[in-house]
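A further point concerns the way the authors explain their paired sequence and structure data. Nothing conveys this as quickly as seeing an actual entry. An entry of this sort, consisting of the sequence and the corresponding backbone structure tokens, reads as follows:
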Amino acid sequence: MSLRKQAVSGMIWTFLQQFGSQLISFVVSLVLARLLLPEEFGLIGMLTIFMGIGSALFNGGLTSSLIRTQECTQEDYSTVFYFNFAGSILIYGILFMVAPWIAKFYHQPSLTSITRVYGLTFILSAFGTVQNTILTRELKFKKLAIISLPALVISSVVGILMAYLNYGVWSLIVSTLVNVFFVSFFLWFNAKWYPKLIFSKDKFIQHFYYGYKLTISAILDTIFTNIYHIVIGRFYSPTLVGYYTRANTLMMLPVGNISGALNKVVFPLFSKVQDDLPRFRNSYKQIMQMVLFIITPIIVLMGLLAKPLIVLLFTDKWLAVVPIFKIICFTGILYPIHLYNLIVLEVKGRSDLFLKLEVFKKILLTIILIISFFYGFYALLWGQLIFSILALFINTHYAGKILEYSMWQQMRDILPIFIFAVIMAAITFIVDRMLTSQIDIVRLILGSLSGSLTYLLVAYLFKFESIQDIKNLILKI
């Protein structure tokens, strides 16, 4: 199969996996939002940073090194497998010991037992990390889709049943553990690879040298991406963490799905064309425009119609999420640009530059966070948006130098999308103002329909090339 056909097939199956998984997860989250309280989601949100740091540490960036390595042997795979497994046990042990301090920091005694049980996901996921990497390297996304969906269905049933039986926050924890267990179990038997008693010091050094900088970068990113959970949880309340987590999760539903699905294909795909600069640059431009063309109108519509959307989905008890969600939506639009610029650095092996940029950006975020903290909760959210904009210029500048595709060229190529979105927003706002007396579902349907048609019509009239790219992709299915 040609690289192009592999890429198209990979995108199709990855989207099916991603959207199938998220459709199930979204339906489950609607059920759980009615059965559980915001503060119970908040308790899990408080642990996000610790779980993220642990994942970054035991993964070590070595799997990324495996994907970009042209030829991998049994030595490569086995070495990374044993390092990941040993690392997961070590990280879980540390998390187990510091659990009482985490609970004390947040003034939530129940977090001790929650942390110790939730942390078992590290060990369970370590069993399938290399198998997942092998299938990704080989662009076998159909298998990955077949593996992930049954595991999600099983864990979702368990979570809903436990929530219905009033197990509270434990329904979220056990559901996660069940999902990770079955994903690893299915990966183990579908990847047709098993570790041998081999650990190569040379292979470890090779992958570690590339991966450790990405690991440090991932840890920094995890800390500062979730720093708001820490600040809100420590100085406000679990309920407010729950609102913030719900708003962020809802925003990431389209953003994370579309960008994340493509990311699984883009990284191995870019790795294969990394030495062909014109081809690399054109692929990057095409994917960037296509993703933004899809994500931007969705996020804008969700932000404009936030109140009827949230009340319809989660009921009135989540109404406080609305103003939080509207601010967070702005950062969601910029997310794909950050993601694909950083992938360029990874693919080209510039993990050193990746790390330097992460350190600089985190210093910048710290300054913004400290300043905004003194002005209240909503100032923290606006500060997050300001940081995202500044980081955008940093990421596009350095990735642009590698691609010979400058920041200004990138901005010029995506500017029409934002112009289309502004026109769409104006029409949607007018229509929604006329429908304020209508029920939520009517406001959502008519507002979204009028906005979407406006967006597509304007893009079609200006003959924006992403429309043709999407049409071609659909015809390949």
